[in-house]
Amino acid sequence: MRKVKFDRVLCVGCKQCQMACVARHMASGDITQLSKEPDAKPARLRVRKDAQKQRLHVVRCQMCKDAKCVEACDCGGIVQDEDGYVHFTDECTQCLSCVEACPFKAIFVHDGEVYKCDLCIDWTSPACVEACKVASMTFTE
């Protein structure tokens, strides 16, 4: 199972992981062209600072073993395959039950569309991991 691990001690909050995610999902694949791609999609992960604990964390899909988002979806719009990969299907009706069910708030709505980390499944490794210069994000299969 593909997994991205995050080390909050090493993270400096540069958000290069977010920019790399946006670029990976752009038609051009080039973040410098963002202003020329009005339909660019948002980063599937978000670096956040915990106001109470004053530390950084990354909000992203955890690919839960017993995924609450999958359980909440009545139409088969989000499923978990035999490898544990949680992903959207063409059956998704944008009902938002997965958004409400995710305990990590990793599924979100942007401009009327539902998003979550896809682990860059069609690539060798996730863009966020490749972009992290301090190795706060690591990838295992």
Structural account:
It is a single chain. This protein has 141 residues and is α+β, with helices and mostly antiparallel strands. It folds into 2 domains: 1-60 and 117-141, Alpha-Beta Plaits (2-Layer Sandwich); 64-105, Alpha-Beta Plaits (2-Layer Sandwich). 17% of the residues lie in helices and 21% in strands. It has 4 helices and 8 strands; from the N terminus they run βαββαββαββαβ. The strands form 4 sheets. A two-stranded antiparallel sheet has the order 1-8. The chain has a two-stranded antiparallel ribbon with strand order 2-3. Strands 4-5 form a two-stranded antiparallel sheet. A hairpin with a 2-residue loop joins strand 6 (108-110) and strand 7. The mean pLDDT is 92.
